[in-house]
């Protein structure tokens, strides 16, 4: 190992040479490559973490660039996991990266955790966070949790098979009606701060130090305040009781993108990229491959679509469709071409 490269952190009593070896040997799953995940991945790669599993279903868009600093304009339209993998290798050629273009739900969450030493939850929907939490309980994986919205953030660390978990703290919530980055906004500096704290907690977990275990750190950048709250395991926690998750596979309105409605659908029987390209061509749709994991195409009314190897169809709906019901019909029509 090139210890000279990491000499400024090896000099720390909390890391040292033995700690640096632990970082090199670690396999960290970063789940969600938005503002938090981008910061976590870049920070840990710079510190010499040896292997990453990068998990996301989305593509890079222009509104991401103000806070997702791993991406540049040349990545717009690419799969986030593919673009991030390329950038991490540029920053540290010694790291190994496994990109997983996957939509995290109760069926797929296992892929994100089973081979990892540590899981970092940078997801932005509760339904996916719940599914990831359940997988960490089943596979006994430590989980670094974080969230950021407006000017407020949270960070915690869970060992959910023996202690508290995210569903102990926030049980039975739905994504419907909750604010998002697109509706409520988010301060870029908050994202970098929360992501950096999450990365620091990931390092401490790798080194066997449990500073935020079962403790929720609240961050308020409106008045630059920090507060810690101790967490207890909830005897009525749905995850620990083994209660099923509710999951609806339907067209979902996400945020807006480029001033348009953004809708998403996870296909039931998703074709591989090559097969999807053939099916679209048979329906007279001229799709182009962006990177290796995304098909991009536009319909006759100007709606823009991205189909990813995660089996997810993303649609920026044309302004000619004024209602959500009309927009959903557009997505369902295209999905029938692919199913």
Automatic annotation (TrEMBL):
InterPro entries recorded: ThiF/MoeB/HesA (IPR045886), ThiF_NAD_FAD-bd (IPR000594), Ubiquitin-activating_enz (IPR035985)
Any one annotated GO CC term: cytoplasm
Matches recorded under Pfam families: ThiF
Residues annotated as domain THIF-type NAD/FAD binding fold: 6-239
Domain of life the protein comes from: Archaea
Residue ranges of the TM segments: none
SUPFAM superfamilies: Activating enzymes of the ubiquitin-like proteins
GO MF assignments: nucleotidyltransferase activity; thiosulfate-cyanide sulfurtransferase activity; ubiquitin-like modifier activating enzyme activity
Signal sequence coordinates: none
Family listed: Belongs to the HesA/MoeB/ThiF family.
Protein's UniProt name: THIF-type NAD/FAD binding fold domain-containing protein
Organism of this sequence: Candidatus Marsarchaeota G2 archaeon ECH_B_SAG-G06
